Amino acid sequence: METKLKAEHHGMLNEGSENECHVFGYRTKRWRQVLCYLGYVLTLGLMRFLFYWKQEMYVWFVCNPCSLEEADVLLIKTTDEQKKCFTKKVKSFHVANLSHIAFLDTNTAEKQTSKELPVDTEHKCFQVRYMYVQKIRYIWNPFKGMFQKSGVLDYTHSCSDIHTKFGSGFSKEEQDSRRQICGSNSIEVEITPIWKLLFREQSVKLHKMVEFHNNVMVSVLRKTGDIEEVQSQNLIPGDLIILPEKKMYLPCDAIQISGGCVINEGMLTGECVPVTKTPLPCVDNYIPWNIHTGENFKEHMLFCGTEVTKIKPDSDGLVKAVVLHTGFNTTKGDLVRSILYPKPIKLKLYRDVFWLMAALSLVSVFGLIYSVVVGALQAAPTKDLVLMAFIMLTCAVPVSLPPALAICILYSQNRLKKHGIFCISPDRISLCGQLNLICFDKTGTLTEEGLDLWGIVPTGENCFQEVHHFTSGCTLPWGPLLGAVASCHSLIVLDGKIHGDPLDFKMFEGSGWNIDDSQATCTVSGKCGSCVTVKPGSGSKVPVDGINILLQFPFSSAQQRMSVIAQIIGEERLTLFLKGAPEMVIRFCKPETVTPSFKNTLDYYTEQGFRVISLAYKYFELQENVSLHNLKREEVESDLIFLGFLIMENQLKPETKPVLQELNSANLRTVMLTGDNCKTACTVGMGSGMLRNTDTLFLLEATDPEGDTQPFINWQIVKRNKDNDTKINETTVNISCIDNDINFNTMQVELDYASSGKYDFTAKQNLPELMMPNVCLLPSAFAPSVDAVALNKTAEDIQCVAPWSHYVRQHKYHYAMTGKSYQTIKQYFPDLMPDILLNGTIFARMTPKQKSTIIEDLQNIDYYVGMCGDGANDCGALKAAHAGISLSELEASVASPFTSKITNITCMPILLKEGRNVFVTYVSLFKYMVMYAFIALICMYLMFWEQTLLGSNQYLMQDIAITIPLMLTMSMNGPAPKLAPYRPAGRLLLPPLLFSVLLHLCFTITVQMCAYFVLQQQPWFSRSDVFHACIPQNMSFGNETTPLVPDVSQNFFTTTCWIITGINLIIVEFVFSKGRPFRQPIYTNYIFSMFVVLQVAVYIFFLFADIESLYRTMKIVCMPYYWRGIIFGMVFALFAVAYFIEECILENRSLWLRIYKKFNCKYLSQFKELQKAMEMDNHPTVVQRKTTRTNMLRDKRSNQNSV
After folding, report:
1. Is 676 tagged catalytic?
2. Catalytic residue among 239, 334, 352, 441
3. What residues does the P5B-type ATPase N-terminal domain cover (predicted)?
């Protein structure tokens, strides 16, 4: 019974997703709740404060564990690194009809064997229990015994289920019944009350951004066949919507099931390039539709917030789509939720802040005890004792810190906005200050978005023909190659202009053909449908009237290709044209059609930096009873005929090289993640300055095992020629013989998987006269050089080291590889991964998933990674990075936390500078707030000992005249104009920062204690008579003279300490306001500088002025001028010492580096420890005879046979 309760007590939310949570059921006990409220009163609210921050403790105190079905309170625990706990109350509502409940789309057998919904006998209806977590409604499903999302169509439906169950639409009654469970299709963002000033502006913008979403008229197809216009907020998952011919913004996520359409997904990807959508195939199987379509599922998805720009109706004249997600479950809802509930940031600074705040809380508790003990010893009245205790408890906790940090972020956002950079996750701005590795996409980011068509290299007679250049008036002759260039694209015509991918546009422009703007229809196998027609231009002399593009298989980064099924006007047969990455295209071509010089020709062009696209085609006929839209891509893309290469020229953006040089000079590592050819990427990397002229680049090509063939890695050196082009040098290792100084200048090096867990280089070469067996080379970057190979020795005696190891000592080396090679190395050669992650610079032919994987691997060795891309294929990488910035014309997109309207990488240094500025400001504000607490505490300790307090106006003066102006103005400093060659310290619990606070605390204690004791030694000092130290003061009423009665706060102690603490606060305010190298100098912040000068002037005025009304207002007393001079001397000495220590010692980076080196301090980052280990481990490694995995398995089998 207990085991059953334990199982029913726990469940999962969003299992398998990144938002996965544990959920535990509890039931509230009323008597415990009463005790809890009593505890709030007895602890003066401390218990409530504790339960607010530790909600699990509240649940354990007030509730009993129970099953999730009976729970009225749920404890939810996230599964991420934060392990955050929070509680949610379970609510309920009633429904009268169960026949169309949304989550009852399960098997009938399951319904019969499962539990029934709770029944409310009084109202004769069924009870439905639910809760909200971050705007998402979760419904209790008794048939599955779990809470599940509402507003989502079940992903277990197969492709045929989508067509059959939802292809005819719902009736009005079904829709109304299901809406009770799913809720409204609306994204409601409440406008925050005006008293929450810091967040008001953002909530208003969000409200305006989603306002139109809730008021769109949508055409819905009913089961009766009627089309009804409904409000978008009435849509539910499973509804069948009809896309109109006019432009519209989608109010939900949907799956297209018929017809075609063109979507502008700029809100989603950040790239305003129209995307063609195809209908979900009606395949009769039991595989869930998203698994069946695999990585291509987005080809059939219509996302909320994206714009439908054009439709292609089916034979019935309609374009239909089934609603998949509604409300906050949609893509746009995710964007809004990511703004409202930003993902927690793993920043060491925040963890240090937590520990220091905990330490300050302990200090405040000590102050509370001190005030109570002192008050009790001196028999203070209970009222005064309680007052002093509360003051001591609150003054140690810097409550002004959160609003000060929020104001800092607001200023930073405004500065970024002026540069065209917009942010939906403000907390990540400070994280940008810690970035030490920046990843860049290539096309559209480092290079121009547009491509220039350089030429076409056709094939013929089993070899490549002469290059065809697209000069004025020179067009391709008619043939399959021209057909591919004219039709193998996804271009569309909108408002009389051609839109689409820049590569497609340039390719089609070179053909000299035109796209017919009219809505064309064509008949295939007796079925009529819409199509896109391309026709020859006026100057083209071809024997055809045009080509109908019947079906598109859109480009996919994962598949690295696209294809179209076309039909030449007047012909019956169909033609498939395919274009894509050369390495991918030849997999689908007949081997006899691929020229023998394919690789050499491809290398020739890619090494010059050209982007090379392969073209192929085949003719085929459609079988009877087979629909064109039900053709499987894998079946038609086979047995193709290779046509040749399309050569595109992609120039570097003029801003790329200066920015990369700026990043390199700031010691920021740069990495390229691209889907382009590896050798093209190498050329761009060298030409852009990502690699210095003295650096060496190794091209790695890893091969997976096949049969008895073991996995191995080919290593090649990429060198520049005189024209600054790259050249792949096949000479990868030079091994000199001791006896006769023979050089092996041409050698392929393979890295074999050894049974010992090490990896051996095997230099293989056909040199029979040398009688030399395989040479074993350990791929250790620590070894100094390959010195010699004894000609007369066997492999067991040879001592060799890594071929590239001498580059470690002479200059830096880099690795370039494809995504496939990276995966192979990660799987079969894990010992090489640290070296790959530390020195890998160019990663080509990367799928979106592989980009995200590399970024996560870099983060695992403590790199702070930034990512800059155009958003199209970089969405995953932009989200995975600590700070991703998308180059887009839009202000916000789901693609990344930052969006830049500057369409080049100059936005990255701007973001880095601003991030460092904010980070340093964070540290300065925190140090000031900590010192504010300590200065106030020390003053309070002295005052409480004398049974006195500062006056109310004196407290207000410190808060309003000093702290509030600092909160509002310290963050106004702009970032430094130049990136420093190092980052700001990423933690608070580091010696420089801790010593800074501790030393300033010591200075404060010294000054205040000196003033306290020296004051009591003065001849005019008196605890009772405070008005006769300098000028006799009295108050006259007519002819009578009445002596003044001092207030409890009016004495020599409060006057002296208040002046000193006030100026002390101004001193730390000024000293902690850092300027260079991460911020502009303090004098450039005119408002802050003005306030500092004004504050000093006011306090000096209070110190030396003799104004009786001022004395009465501020609760201060007159003191001799020489004592005022002593106070001024004390605070001036405090300023001089504090400024000197802070600037010359605590901020002396070179001094601290020498101290760290002297004491051999360990690095805090794992990648630095790895770099240090590689630099120190430079001894040659002896490698024994190579044992391959094949030999190991063979030996194992022989041992088993012998047994």
Report:
1. no
2. 441
3. 18-141
